């Protein structure tokens, strides 16, 4: 595991984008796993800058997103409405600004009529694409990855997951409150890639910023491997692992930061 500490959020974001861009240049038809939330926005903005100013070419890149709320979602072929789907987030924050082909974008379908069948299909599509080359990851306040809530099996696959109160509270503040949607009306279930699915990526790239993430980052990277903190499964990743932190998020690391 390689841990890189940058001075601030902007430097962290640039470093993550440079790793992703380096793979795209080396392997133009690479498969990228993307995440949502506030943390990766800076990385996506840097990738957009690289595309517009340096010609970074996404035309042959394929993508798979980690998760989506169950009960909401949008079709890339239709106009985007003001919903709170992660699909719309990806469109607004990245996809509409780069030259990626719509047919190469894979998103969990929150409107699937048979979600369990869709989850099985999603796993098959990842394998058909050759697996994920780089999986971009954040870390939740309680140490969860995607919507793999505490207690999730570390061997889990893409599935429907009930959301915890902590996740509902965090996402309400981040996405729903500003849209004037009542908390009781936000989705309480989601489709998420499993921990086992994530661990099959060739390169796991986790980013975190801010002092509020420092304790859980330390627990995930230096503590016990436990389903209570699903991001601790990063210690089990059999391939390449890079963690990029700003100085605040790295402030509670001990032995690993010395190394």
Question: What does this molecule look like?
Answer:
This protein has one domain (2-258): Rossmann fold, CATH 3.40.50.1360. Helices cover 32% and strands 17% of the residues. It has eight helices and ten strands. It has helices at residues 9-26, 41-54, 86-93, 115-128, 165-176, 195-199, 214-222, 255-258, and strands at 2-6, 31-34, 62-65, 67-69, 105-106, 134-137, 159-162, 189-192, 203-208, 240-246. Strand 2 (31-34), helix 2 and strand 3 form a beta-alpha-beta unit. Helix 1 (9-26) packs across helix 2 (41-54).
Shape: globular
Count of all domains: 1
**Helicity level:** 25-40%
Query: For the CA atoms, what is the radius of gyration?
Result: 17 Å
In the CATH hierarchy, the architecture is 3-Layer(aba) Sandwich
Q: Order of helices and strands, N to C?
A: EHEHEEHEHEEHEHEHEH
Describe the sheet with the most strands.
Answer: 7 strands, parallel
**C-alpha end-to-end distance:** 11 Å
- Uncertain ranges: none
Count of distinct strands: 10
Strand content: 15-25%
For the largest beta sheet, what order do the strands appear in spatially? Answer: 1-10-9-6-2-3-5
CATH class: Alpha Beta
Tally of DSSP helical segments: 8
Sheet/helix structural class? alpha/beta
CATH structural fold name: Rossmann fold
Mean pLDDT over the full residue set: 91
